[in-house]
Amino acid sequence: EAFAALEADLAERAKALGPNWEADLPTLETQRTEARAALQQVLAARAALEGQRSEALDAAQRAVDQAAQALAALTQRRVQLQESAVALRDRVARLEGQLESQRQHLGLLDRASIVATHHSAQQALPTPTPPPVDEDDDDALQRERLVQELARISTRNTELAVLLQQSDGRSLADARDEAQLEVEEFETQSDDLELDYEAWKLLRDTLLETESQAADHLGRALAPAIGERFDSLTQARYGALQLGQGLDAQGIFKEGESRGLDELSIGTREQLATVMRIALAERLKSVLMLDDQLVQSDVSRTRMIGEMLRNAAETIQVIVLTCRPEDYEVEKAGPLHAVDLAAVIS
Fold first, then answer.
1. What is the pTM assigned to this prediction?
2. Distance of CA 198 to the CA centre of its chain
3. Distances from the Cα of 308 to the Cαs of 46, 81, 109, in angstroms?
């Protein structure tokens, strides 16, 4: 009985395949090979698109990060230079105060008297002569006193010379001038850094503003197309869609009030996301790839979105990976290419 059942099953399968099924094997194998190649092309296109998108996003993020890092470094350097400039100005003020105090002190001295005393002290210095070999102790004691007096006068002479040199205030004036030059140099560097700082800040602000404006313009341009398709799906149950600057759906209007997207069902949210992706792909003329995007949606709405995808496929490339092809009514795809991956992989 089992053998008879098996023969009956084989006969039924042979009948389903047709009388020329053996002759059709090469054709089926060719179709299978073509399907495998088409699948590889689809997967390669998907990987390439994801890579290009990732590279573009990474490049933009790196540019913003570099601008932010440069701006932070310039800000820190600017603060350091400002602190150095303040310290140098304080140093100049202290040196000027010391210089003024020294000038006032020197103003109380009689320069002519100091010069005369210095000259007299130099004239009074005795010329030392070697003592006789046979001098007594009194002469030795006197000689020792003269040597001590000579040392005292020499020391005083040195002090007077230093005092005369300082009377012009040159050392303090030189120190003040050097400090002033350092202040001017730091101020020049600070001005240069200020220009760099403003340039980087302008670049960062311009990039952020351009990104915000582009997203805002794109959001306003997409809103009507998204709203029209979403209304057709939900029978106009909801009002206008609220799009943020990052093209993110922030909410909807329901019964005249703004509602959050968390009030929508999971299926409705995924339908809204799909409609937004269709509108964005059409606007940017880019490839649209969906991977079982509507697993939580009912069949009727899935078929409505399938109709939207077929219409979009007239102007852009649409790739849909799904385990429920019947929900998309593949037989209505017309000239579109449908690949049964189960048949290709098996």
1. 0.41
2. 16
3. 21, 62, 103
The predicted-structure confidence for 260-309, as pLDDT tens digits, reads as follows: 777 778 888 888 888 888 888 888 888 888 887 777 788 888 888 888 88
Q: What is the amino acid identity at position 247?
A: L
Which residues make Cβ contacts (< 8 Å) with residue 86, sequence separation at least 6? none
DSSP 288: E
Q: Measured between alpha carbons, how far is 252 from 259 in angstroms, rounded to an integer?
A: 5
Domain ranges of the chain: 266-346
CA distance 124 to 150: 9
- Rounded-to-integer distance, Cα 90 and Cα 189, Å: 19
Quick check: 226 and 276 in contact, CB under 8 A? yes
Q: Which two tokens stand for residue 177?
A: 């001038």
At a CB cut-off of 8 Å and minimum separation 6, what does 225 contact? 279, 282, 283
Burial 137-154 (b: 16+ CB within 10 A, else e): eeeeeeeeeeeeeeeeee
Nearest to 194 by CA among 50, 78, 61: 78
Written as six digits, the tokens of 187 are 């101020």
132 DSSP assignment: P
Question: What is d(CA 269, CA 272) in angstroms, rounded to the nearest whole number?
Answer: 5
